[in-house]
Design goal:
- This protein is of the alpha+beta class and about 260 residues long.
- It folds into two domains: about 120 residues, Beta Polymerase, domain 2 (2-Layer Sandwich); about 120 residues, Four Helix Bundle (Hemerythrin (Met), subunit A), CATH 1.20.120.
- Helix 3 links the parallel strand 2 and strand 3.
- It has a four-stranded mixed beta sheet.
- Helix 1 packs antiparallel against helix 3 and helix 5 crosses helix 7.
- The two termini are about 30 Å apart.
- The chain is globular.
- It contains eleven helices and four strands; from the N terminus they run H-E-H-E-H-E-H-H-E-H-H-H-H-H-H.
Length: about 260
């Protein structure tokens, strides 16, 4: 496996040190069985929040035997405490079929990733993203349902709302990128930029989403009695987004696939 440390240049020093140590252990445990180790998510995009964000890794193998998975399990148990989450694991043959089924995830990883070791698997993939529109709609609607359920599960307390809103927004941002792509607009940019463009691209007010983004970044701390109001605004914003997607679909403005 070869490394490309020059692509790490903009990472926080702590993250670089953690990944170097993780790769050292990965090479010892997985040897030549792993063809590629790819970083994706917030650290690859440039919106990583130290102490808040996780590190996301994808691994590609020729085959995934039980022995290899056991070694991955050992590696994961040693590094999960450092916020490196359980890796996505695929054989090379599985990549195309998986990402054709989940195009939203494919574009998120393909467009913003860093090859930590091995060969970049994405230039060889040829994905027909015909399911992108459907996946965006499904994820947004599912998000609304989950937020309602989690609010009830948390008994409506402010701590529960504080926890569930940032998690929800984390899944909304990729959906916005997907919608921009379907509308022929650039999906690139930090979450701040993606939210700022909502009025011009979707004709929607991003205010509630911006509030939750600041909450996620630790730059805003609503009072205990303000959380229910924020939740109400956020649920209203999700409903408005769903309605807008329905209108765009009826008007034929959403492409059926995306490059």
């Amino acid at each position: 496996m070869s490394e490309y440390p020059i692509t790490w240049a903009k990472m926080p020093q702590h993250a670089q040190a953690t990944l170097h140590a993780y790769l050292r252990d990965a090479k010892k445990m997985l040897k030549d069985d792993v063809h590629a180790i790819v970083l994706y998510g917030s650290l690859a995009r440039g919106d990583y929040l130290e102490g808040r964000s996780n590190m996301n890794v994808l691994m590609v193998f020729e085959s995934l035997t039980l022995d290899i998975m056991k070694r991955c399990a050992k590696l994961n148990s040693q590094w999960s405490k450092e916020r490196i989450v359980t890796p996505l694991m695929f054989t090379r043959q599985e990549l195309s079929s998986f990402f054709e089924t989940f195009p939203l995830e494919y574009f998120e990883i393909r467009d913003q990733h860093i090859v930590l070791a091995g060969k970049d698997p994405f230039p060889e993939l040829h994905i027909q993203a015909r399911n992108l529109r459907w996946e965006c709609e499904r994820e947004i609607r599912g998000n609304l349902i989950r937020v309602r359920q989690q609010f009830v599960e948390s008994k409506g307390n402010s701590e529960g709302i504080h926890a569930l809103l940032p998690i929800s927004l984390t899944t909304v941002i990729p959906c916005l990128r997907g919608l921009y792509r379907l509308l022929g607009q650039s999906p690139q940019g930090t979450p701040d930029i993606i939210l700022d463009r909502m009025p011009s691209v979707l004709d929607l007010d991003p205010g509630a989403f911006h509030e939750v983004w600041l909450l996620k970044r630790g730059q805003s701390t609503p009072g205990k009695h303000d959380f229910p109001n924020l939740l109400g605004r956020y649920l209203g914003a999700l409903s408005a987004l769903i309605n807008r997607v329905e209108i765009l679909g009826r008007e034929g403005r959403l492409k059926e696939d995306a490059p």
